[in-house]
Please model this.
Amino acid sequence: MRDTTLHGTYKVQALDRAFAVLDLLGESDVPLGLAQVASALQLHKSTAHRFLMVLERHHMVERTGNGKFRLGLRLFEYGNRAIEQYDLRERAQPHLRRLVNETNETAHLCILEQAHIIYLDKLEPMRSVRMITRVGASNPVHCTSVGKAILAFLPEERVAEIIRKTRFERFTPRTITSAEAFRAEIEKTHRRGYAVDDEELEEGLRCIAVPILDAQKHPVAAVSVSGPSFRVTAKKLPEIAHHLLQCVRGISMDMGFVSKQRPALARA
Model:
């Protein structure tokens, strides 16, 4: 019988490289040229070109007018399907609705993807001033309460890896722009049990978040409450944190996670 081990190994390597191309394009803020892809992944141009052509044929990447490459719309379709099928989102819905009713502000359910958070779900109150966010969108970890909440309960090696990938882009005068300041904020978040985005992503917007922990006390997602800073005041944060804590406990129970004592909430 013919030995297919080598052939099988090549197929696995090809898949790894194809996903590496997608990861590279996904992490870039701008489309990349063939030479940039080949250099970043340490591939020959001909090899990189073959992968890009296959991915383009399947609409996983697309070419811009100047011949550079970016992620294709088929990935967006897959992402939306994954979100629709995600069990966490379905189980969290009733708890998010209760949270919105209790706080009268917008609630988000988010997960971590590399150095960004992805919005899995969003529920809004019937108010005139609302959050301009959409399900499926992403934001950096360093300026979001959900990003801080998740990182505060991750293992140190994972935190270090994410911080290395973070660009610390400034969005407002309050945005954290250094690894040292970000680490201090993560430690503060861990101590008090909740995270705060104090107008760091958008001026006039304040958010507070609590992570959802699994049976091993690892964060699988985070829930946040967001609203204009004149409504979500510093004085209200502990009260909102209490509602968030009850919300994530309910989600954890419905997901089958073991209920354990969480860190006590402290004042900021």
About this structure: The domain at 86-254 is CATH 3.30.450.40 (Beta-Lactamase). Residues 115 and 162 are 5 Å apart (CA to CA). The two ends are 68 Å apart (CA to CA). The chain has two domains: 5-76, 86-254.
